[in-house]
Specification:
Blueprint (H helix, E strand, L loop, with lengths): L5 H48 L49 H16 L16 E2 L24 E2 L4 H6 L2 E3 L10 E5 L9 E5 L10 E8 L20 E6 L21 E3 L6 E3 L4 H7 L3 E6 L3 E5 L18 E5 L6 E8 L19 H4 L11 E2 L29 E8 L18
Antiparallel strand pairs: 1-2, 1-15, 3-4, 4-5, 5-6, 6-7, 7-8, 8-9, 10-11, 11-12, 12-13, 13-15, 14-15
């Protein structure tokens, strides 16, 4: 084997320096090429600007506005047509500049044109997904509706089961499409095993799955069987049905096309109840500060494993009547520390939880065999309307502050709940001081 000499080391070093210099020169060349392109584009723009400013002609067009692929909607970044007072279109050139515009306005159009042509079109399609996690129903991690179990359970003592936030997760965990058509403002409907039942009275909605975008969660619906929806809210809050009445919840605002297959963009989490028969929507405050500022919501208790509850009344707003027929059937829950949204709770003024009475005693004992037969509502015998002597731990008034114990009325023996969470639990759902409830 030849022994390396000093000259060979020098030669190798020289070669490395030459290689490094070549790489650097290539980087400089690329940078110069990019700079030349930008300068050239600006020069062309300035020449065009000078031509237009000197009185050059423009071509009148009535083409439809440019649709941005980046935003995934039909709204243009630059409005190419503007109506004058007579309702006629104004002439524009190919950059969207109108005749008679001033120097500054033309310069803005040129900058926007260069940005769209050179940079914006290169940005990758991307859907901002919310929620990233989804859990529901106390102790439901043991029943059949958990799917494969790969979605896990929330980090609370109540162990709500993980639910699918994408079409891929839904298909892998026993959910199937209800129909091929998209439901406006909600998305494409999926149900467990492709059927809505009193065992799985829930529909999850997703955006369209394409090569560019995953189908992601865009809404949910909870179906109230056994005439549990209050008569005072059917046709307004609840959508009336033959076998059940439904609450429909959207996770995107009305300007988002959840059916089109394009990217979904959202700057922040959003929840709204779609009112029945196209009568609009009721947006929920996404922070505790927003709930307070609205004047519409009354602060309830903070319960460990859940968060701070807020309530409203369909007749009296934050001045709760404590009458079941007026109590809004959904309650947001917030992080006690930072006020962010933890989840939402659905409420019924009767027992909705079901189980196999051949396996479970009444009230059901929390045995593994019994837990496998339960449905989507929170496990248990319901929450009593009036506290008993001796007191029981499951009292509906634990969720409220104020004079609930002497005022709550209207339930058929008990209330029942179905909790949905958009956080993993842990510190986000911790209340202080600890106790049965904290007001």
């Amino acid at each position: 084997m030849a022994i390396p000499t000093e000259q060979s080391f020098l030669t190798a070093s020289q070669n490395d320096e030459d290689h490094t210099r070549t790489k650097n020169e290539k980087k400089v060349d690329r940078s110069l090429a990019s700079l030349s392109y930008i300068i050239g584009t600006i020069v062309v723009g300035l020449v065009t600007l000078s031509f237009l400013y000197a009185g050059g002609t423009t071509t009148t067009t009535t083409t439809t506005p440019y649709s941005s692929n980046y935003y995934g909607s039909a709204e243009p970044e630059i409005n190419l047509l503007r109506s004058n007072t007579a309702g006629e279109s104004v002439g524009t050139n190919e950059m969207g500049m109108e005749e008679g515009e001033g120097f500054i306005q033309k310069l803005k159009h040129i900058i926007s044109h260069i940005y769209n042509k050179s940079f914006k079109k290169k940005l990758k399609h991307h859907t901002i997904q919310w929620p990233l996690v989804l859990y529901s129903s106390f102790l439901s991690n043991f029943n059949i509706y958990k799917g494969t179990g790969e979605l896990g359970a929330m980090a609370t003592p109540f162990a709500p089961a993980g639910r699918p936030t994408t079409i891929k997760q839904a298909a892998a965990n026993g959910w199937k499409p209800l129909e091929k058509e998209c439901v406006p403002n909600l998305g494409y409907p999926w149900a467990f095993d492709g059927k809505i039942t009193d065992g799985a009275p829930v529909t999850l909605y997703y955006s369209k799955e394409t090569k560019q975008n995953d189908g992601v969660l865009t809404g949910l619906a909870v179906h109230y069987y056994d005439n549990a929806a209050p008569d005072t809210m059917i046709g307004s809050v609840f959508l009336k049905g033959d076998d059940y009445d439904t609450l429909q919840v959207a996770f995107h605002d009305k300007n988002t096309d959840v059916c089109g297959g394009g990217s979904l963009f959202s700057n922040e989490p959003y929840i709204a109840l779609l009112l029945a028969d196209g009568k609009g929507r009721k947006s929920f405050p996404m922070t505790e500060d927003a709930a307070k500022a609205s004047g519409e919501w009354a602060k309830g208790s903070c319960l460990n494993g859940m968060g701070v509850h807020y309530w409203t009344d369909i007749k009296y707003g934050s001045n709760l009547s404590f009458e079941a027929e007026n109590l809004y059937p959904m309650a947001p829950m917030y992080n006690q520390k930072d006020g962010s949204l933890n989840g939402i709770m659905f409420v019924a003024a009767k027992l909705m939880h079901t189980w196999d009475t051949n396996v479970c005693d009444l009230p059901p004992k929390l045995t593994p065999e019994c837990l496998t037969t339960t449905n989507f509502w929170d496990i248990g015998p319901g929450q009593v309307q009036k506290q008993t002597d001796p007191p029981v731990p499951l009292s509906m008034c634990n969720n409220f502050c104020g004079d609930c114990q002497n005022s709550l009325t209207g339930a058929l023996d008990v209330f029942d709940t179905m909790h949905w969470f958009f956080v993993k639990g842990g510190e986000a759902t911790t209340c202080a001081p600890e106790g049965v409830n904290s007001c």
